[in-house]
Each structure stands twice: as C-alpha cells, then as structure tokens.
Design brief:
This protein folds into two domains: 58 residues, no CATH class; 47 residues, no CATH class. The chain is 39% helix and 0% strand. The longest helix has 17 residues. It is found in: Virion.
C-alpha cells in the first residue's frame, strides 16, 4: 500500500506545535522535578545490583563467589607463565661461548617459571 500526500499530512505536526513542545521541554526539566532520590527509595531495582562496600560484596550479591586465580604452570598443569628476561643474541665464536649463552638463556627461562 502506497503512502499518499494526504497520509503524510495527517501524520505531520505543524511547526507551531513543534515549537510549543520544545518550549514546554525547556521550561519543564526532565526527571519530573528537583527532589533527591535515594537508593532506598528506588523501587523495582534488580537484585543483582547491590550497594556493596567493595568488589567482594558485589560478588556475594550476585553469587559469583571468589575471583579466579590463574594457576602457576608446572610440568603437568597448564597455567599462566611470566615473560622471561631478555637474552641477547649470541656473539660466541667458540663452543664454550655458545654453552655459556645457552646456560644463561636456560637460567632466565627457569627464573620466569617457563621451565623447571
């Protein structure tokens, strides 16, 4: 069904009425007045929004329990791993130098908990 000019005119609001609506909104602030609203006076609020002193109180209010703590990585458990300290590129010119660089890298991986 096509919309006609007559249909549009029926639904249109004259400019004068729009100005009156704008004036009313400017003269009557939103919210219905300037009175204070307290948390206790709000009705119909959801149970999961609670006035808690801290994050633990908020978790208790929504039944979330304790926050998850990522376990440390072990040989048998996947967990969080710290970033190892940087190891410079080897400039060794002999086997002893390569061994020293490799041992330094292994020590840094162990210190970060990446390997046992």
């Amino acid at each position: 069904m096509a919309i006609t000019i007559a249909d549009i005119k029926k639904r249109s609001m004259p400019i004068g009425k729009i100005r009156a609506v704008i004036q009313y909104l400017e003269e009557n602030p939103a919210g219905g007045g300037s009175g204070s609203v307290t948390w206790a006076s709000i009705t119909g609020k959801p149970a999961v929004i609670a006035a808690g002193a801290d994050a633990a109180a908020a978790r208790t209010a929504i039944g979330a329990g304790t926050p998850y703590t990522l376990p440390a990585a072990t040989a048998s458990v996947i967990g969080g791993v710290k970033q190892a300290a940087t190891q410079a590129n080897s400039t060794a010119t002999d086997v002893a130098g390569v061994v020293a660089d490799l041992n330094a890298m292994l020590a840094k991986l162990k210190a970060a908990g990446i390997m046992a």
